[in-house]
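explain this:

___
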Amino acid sequence: MMLLRKTLLMNPMRKLAALGAGLAAVSIAFASVAAASPAQAATPSQFRQSFPNPGTDTTTCGFPIVFNLQVTLVGRVYFDSQGNPVSISVENNVVGTDSANGVTLKESDHWVDFFDAVGFDRQVGLPLHIQDGGVVIRDAGYIVFAPDGSITVVHGPHPFIEGDPAAIAAYCAAFS
């Protein structure tokens, strides 16, 4: 649920779809290493998953935006001396296009999530970067999500996740 909780705060819904599949990778990683023997417990476990993420966002702009994204997740699970997972880092690379009204925009998002055993997620990087010759909208910097999904710290511009009406209007206008 760690990846899923923060994506519920983000619009458009493509973030939910993209990271929802990542949730499976994280769950599999935790499950597969939970059974590791104590002799192997100190060694971090790595995982990698890549998958297409097509979909349609019908809520952000009031018209359908079709997105075709390729998601690649590379992560590492860290353990204590008893072999219990204590933290996980996941590098997220999402590239593709957003299309509506005959206009196609490039999307290239790159960030790292650092999850702790309590459920906090420290996100660093560029979780949203959409271009059309120039930057249309960009969230960048550092955010901390609490276990309940609330945002506790924000550094850097995050107009989309914070719901800045001007930034969202600019994104929607780019499809005109």
Summary: The chain is about 20% helix and 50% strand. The first helix runs from residue 2 to 7.
